[in-house]
Automatic annotation (TrEMBL):
Pfam families from the UniProt entry: DUF6017, RepA_N
DUF6017 domain ranges (all copies): 185-295
Name of the protein in its database record: Replication initiator protein A (RepA) N-terminus
Domain of life: Bacteria
Domain annotation Replication initiator A N-terminal: ranges: 24-98
Length: 298
């Protein structure tokens, strides 16, 4: 039976100028492909390592460290499945594969809680010897130095945490020590890729944090109506739209803010309106810019 070819739905456009910088990327170390130690490692496992590295940078910025000062992350099997579009069996296999090559170390906590994952330094000498993780670590280093996650150091807001519920990442009260604000802050830190934004837009650090705080406060409100862009809109509609924003939308808002020459009387309302309209206005703006560039080339 002949292989079914994928349906071609549309022609993709080219990149023009600096338009490729609008997107965010996972970084996979070249060493994983070039070093003979890691050549047997599957491509999917290398990709997963790049994803875990990206999450680790967020944890490091938020101060999620154990007592020994080591950065850890929480990345569930379900999150691996969602990230790579694979089944549970393969996601588990990939995590085990990274463990066998010493690239990650998992600390199992029991009681239905997700594992803590330590992403290991791929370039260190110790990684030359494959490491097989054991449930009962006899070195004593992990067990004796790890604090309870509720008591871990956090960033300046003292509200961040890496653990989210598998069933509802925003409003689950499975972990009674995690407040709604903390869950929302964690959600937006990930969905907006704040670590990447801070690297790409270092001069806008204060504004980026202001945007995150504004999104968290707005989505956590108990009010039924919110005043956005001159109109009262249902809070659920606003919350739904805000939670679909990504790093590209934030960069677009920052760009509009930088190019705005008119005085802004109410920065909060300006940002709320810009964020609410960003998905629509960004698409129209870049489509118009592309059409203009094409017209100029003719």
């Amino acid at each position: 039976m002949p292989e079914k070819k994928p349906t071609r739905t549309a022609d993709l456009d080219y990149f023009y100028g600096q338009s490729s910088e609008l997107f965010s990327f996972y970084r996979i170390p070249k060493l994983l492909f070039q070093d003979s130690r890691f050549q047997p490692l599957s491509t999917d496992a290398k990709t997963l390592y790049g994803i875990l590295l990206d999450r680790m940078s967020l944890s490091a910025r938020n101060g999620w460290l154990d007592k020994a000062g080591r950065v850890f992350i929480i990345y569930t099997v379900q999150e691996v499945q969602d990230s790579l579009g694979c089944a549970d069996k393969k996601a588990t296999k990939l995590l085990r594969e990274l463990e066998e090559y010493g690239l990650i170390e998992r600390k199992r906590r029991g009681l239905g809680k997700p594992d803590l994952i330590y992403v290991k330094n791929f370039s260190s000498e110790s990684s030359k010897t494959p490491y097989l993780n054991r449930d009962n670590d006899d070195s004593g280093t992990v067990q004796n130095t790890l604090q309870d996650p509720a008591k871990l150091r956090c960033n300046k807001t003292e509200r961040n945490n890496t653990e989210v519920s598998d069933t509802d990442p925003i409003y689950s009260d499975e972990n009674d020590w995690m407040s709604k604000h903390a869950q929302l802050e964690e959600y937006f830190s990930q969905s907006l890729e704040i670590d990447l934004l801070l690297r790409l837009c270092p001069d806008d650090e204060d504004t980026i944090y202001q945007i995150v705080d504004l999104l968290v406060d707005t989505c956590a409100t108990n009010r039924k109506l919110l005043h956005i862009a001159g109109d009262d809109k249902p809070a659920e509609v606003v919350r739904s739209r805000f939670m679909k924003l990504n790093a590209d939308h934030i960069r677009f808002v920052l760009k509009c803010l930088a190019e705005n020459s008119s005085p802004i009387r109410n920065m909060k309302q300006y940002l709320l309106a810009s964020l609410y309209n960003a998905p629509t206005t960004m698409q129209l703006f870049y489509q118009n810019q592309t059409n203009h560039d094409l017209a100029m080339r003719r």
